[in-house]
Every structure is written in structure tokens, then in C-alpha cells.
């Protein structure tokens, strides 16, 4: 079992019993998501915004236009942090202060660089697309050179990380368990609904297998 080393930067202080540093478990949480909250400084202000990402090994890939201020700010300082969260359940207790949520979260820290080589850029975008939906890249048209030129791709090398996981039930005060108040979990999950074809789609184009497989897996 390989773990990220613990430091002041990534060590979980509150709720240490929920801390996870295992690399494989952290990657599993990352691969179950597609949106991360990226933090950066712009004009002296701290900002956090959601961005789609792709992961391969210890690399995270982000992309946008060449003028994107998030990515340009990250490249200017050469490092970044990103958080991914999955909400798994509402935890309803007998008292307000013991209400909670079950969740899986990961916070990443690492260095960033601009991906400039054309082949590396295409590989990064392939990673991004396959992270969104496996098999999609092979079904779409090839990117045009001018599209690649207009796209800014940033590669983050994960240098350290930590996760927090809560996957237990209600934790009330002992004297509250006999109160006539309902308590328990409301499980939550993100689901896929039936695919909706684009209104301009030719009627002879069938739903591709990779879309059907994704729907069946996540419905």
C-alpha cells in the first residue's frame, strides 16, 4: 500500500480518524468524479471555481481557452490545489449539532506546467475525454490544428494529497437515543437518465455503444 507522505500541507487535522493517504483509494475517488474545485489567487483575491478534469497516473489535466485567467494564474505561480467531493448521504440526527453528511473528498497539491507539444496536448485531451466517458474519443472527429492552437492545456503533477471519508451512521448523544425523534440516513447518488438525442441529429444515427454502456452503468 503506497501512501502520500504527511506534512503540514496535506495532513488532516480535524477528524483525523477519517483521513486517508492511500494513493489507490485517492485515485478511486478522483476517477469517480469529473468536476474539481480549483483554487487560485487573482488580483490579490482568493477564488475557487469548478473545472472538469482528467486523470492519468499522478497527472491531472485541465483545459480552456488561451485567455483563461484561472489557468494563466496557476501557470504564473507554478502550483495549484484542487478538491473533489462526492456527497453520499444526509445524516439526520436527533439534535441539530449532530446532523452531518456522508462523503468522499480529496484535496490535491502539486506543480503545474503548460502542455505545448502537439502530441502531448492531444494525449492530454484524450485523457480528459476518456475520463468523462470511455470510448467517446474514438467516435468523434479529429481536432483541427486551429482548435488545438486555441486551447490552453495545463498539467498538474500530484505531489501530495489527502482524502477524508465519512461512511457511518448517526452519532447522537447517549441520552438522546430514547427521544421520540426519527433519525437515520438519506442515501444520495448521481444518476444518469436516458440519453436525449440532439434535435439536429440525422434519424439514421443510432445511439453508440459507449453511451449505452455509460447509461446502464450509472442509471
Structural overview:
By secondary structure, the chain is of the alpha+beta class. The chain is 22% helix and 35% strand. It has a single domain (16-173, 181-190), classed as Pnp Oxidase, Chain A, CATH 2.30.110.10. The chain has five helices and nine strands; from the N terminus they run E-H-E-E-E-E-H-E-E-H-H-E-E-H. Strands 1, 2, 3, 4, 5, 6, 7, 8 and 9 form a nine-stranded antiparallel β-sheet that branches. It is globular. The relative contact order is 0.19. The model has no long low-confidence stretch (mean pLDDT 95).
General shape: globular
Decide which structural class fits the backbone: alpha+beta
Strand content bin: 35-45%
**Spans of 5+ residues with little confidence (pLDDT < 50)?**
none
Q: What pattern of helices and strands is seen along the backbone?
A: EHEEEEHEEHHEEH
What is the level-2 CATH architecture name? Roll
Give the distance, in angstroms, between the N- and C-terminal Cα atoms.
Answer: 32 Å
For the CA atoms, what is the radius of gyration?
Answer: 21 Å
By oligomeric state, this entry counts as single chain
Largest β-sheet summary: 9 strands, antiparallel
Please identify the top-level CATH class.
Answer: Mainly Beta
What is the mean predicted local confidence, pLDDT? 95
User: In CATH, what is the homologous superfamily?
Assistant: Electron Transport, Fmn-binding Protein, Chain A
Structure annotation, total helices? 5
* CATH fold-level assignment: Pnp Oxidase, Chain A
Helical residues, percent: 10-25%
**Tally of structural domains:** 1
The total strand number stands at: 9
Amino acid at each position: 500500500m503506497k501512501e502520500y507522505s504527511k506534512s503540514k500541507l496535506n495532513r488532516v487535522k480535524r477528524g483525523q480518524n477519517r483521513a486517508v493517504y492511500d494513493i489507490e483509494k485517492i485515485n478511486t475517488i478522483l476517477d469517480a468524479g469529473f468536476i474539481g474545485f480549483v483554487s487560485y489567487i487573482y488580483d490579490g483575491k482568493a477564488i475557487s471555481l469548478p473545472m472538469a478534469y482528467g486523470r492519468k497516473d499522478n497527472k491531472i489535466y485541465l483545459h480552456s481557452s488561451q485567455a483563461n485567467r484561472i489557468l494563466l494564474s496557476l501557470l504564473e505561480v507554478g502550483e495549484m490545489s484542487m478538491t473533489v467531493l462526492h456527497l453520499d448521504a444526509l445524516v439526520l440526527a436527533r439534535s441539530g449539532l449532530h446532523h452531518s453528511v456522508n462523503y468522499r473528498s480529496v484535496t490535491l497539491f502539486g506543480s503545474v506546467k503548460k502542455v505545448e507539444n502537439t502530441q502531448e496536448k492531444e494525449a492530454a485531451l484524450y485523457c480528459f475525454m476518456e475520463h468523462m466517458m470511455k470510448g467517446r474519443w474514438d467516435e468523434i472527429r479529429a481536432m483541427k490544428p486551429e482548435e488545438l492552437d486555441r486551447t490552453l492545456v495545463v498539467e498538474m503533477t500530484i505531489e501530495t494529497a489527502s482524502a477524508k471519508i465519512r461512511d457511518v451512521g448517526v452519532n447522537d448523544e447517549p441520552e438522546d437515543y430514547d427521544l421520540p425523534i426519527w433519525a437515520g440516513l438519506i442515501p444520495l447518488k448521481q444518476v444518469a437518465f436516458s440519453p436525449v438525442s440532439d434535435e439536429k441529429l440525422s434519424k439514421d444515427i443510432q445511439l453508440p455503444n459507449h453511451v449505452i454502456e455509460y447509461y446502464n452503468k450509472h442509471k
